[in-house]
Amino acid sequence: MRNKIVAIVPAAGFGKRFGPGGNKQFQSLKDKPLIVWTLKVFESIRDIEEVIPVLKNDDMEAGLDLIDKYRLSKVKKIAPGGKERQDSVFSGLNLVEKKTAAVLIHDGVRPFFKRSLVEESINQLKDCDGVVAGIPVKDTIKGVSTSNVRNEIIVEKTLNRSLLWAVQTPQVFRYDILMNAYAKAMEEGFYSTDDSAIVERYGGKVKIIMGDYSNIKITTPEDLDIAEVLLRKRLDNV
Fold first, then answer.
1. Pairing mode, if any, of strands 102-105 and 5-10?
2. Which fold is adopted by the domain 5-236?
3. How many CA atoms lie within 13 A of 175 on its CB side?
4. Residues 103-161: pLDDT tens digits?
């Protein structure tokens, strides 16, 4: 599929799990803010024609400064973030001008995705409504419930690990399918932290492809320590 691809990069979260120290998307990794590492990958991908970051209103000026400083020519506009991630992605979707475009969603604080993963995701958007990257889980997963008496967490069942995948981004969708699903979800007040879950809810066919175990989402300060190791390894292999 070689229609115009627009990448929406939500980075308007408050980073509560990251703790003191400000917005995680602007935390420095080596010599650049996290979000710049992410945006520069999209800058290098031929099939991505436009990139729309989503930032909090308070971060707009800082975002514009970074776009200018790092010459991110594919960023033509910044969408204002919302209360939840879903609100932020919907804000970005409303700024897509060419409605026949395919849309790619990628977390701003997930800087270690590879160009080849983006290209494969786009190539796989042929006979389905969406393509998501994911990895098979390595650990045994338990289904649990909470006891109202002692507030204990009780194991209900052990899930079949061979059928479980941890979902990542990028996720690529046909624009009309994703926008229609989002519009219905917003109207119904249905919220999810995963874009593909919204498409699935309204009957969309979503395919999953193999992601990368190093494609981590930086959520806590400990993740930033891991990111420094991953970046050092990547730069050593260049």
1. parallel
2. Spore Coat Polysaccharide Biosynthesis Protein SpsA; Chain A (3.90.550)
3. 19
4. 999 999 999 999 999 999 999 998 999 999 999 999 999 999 987 777 789 999 999 99
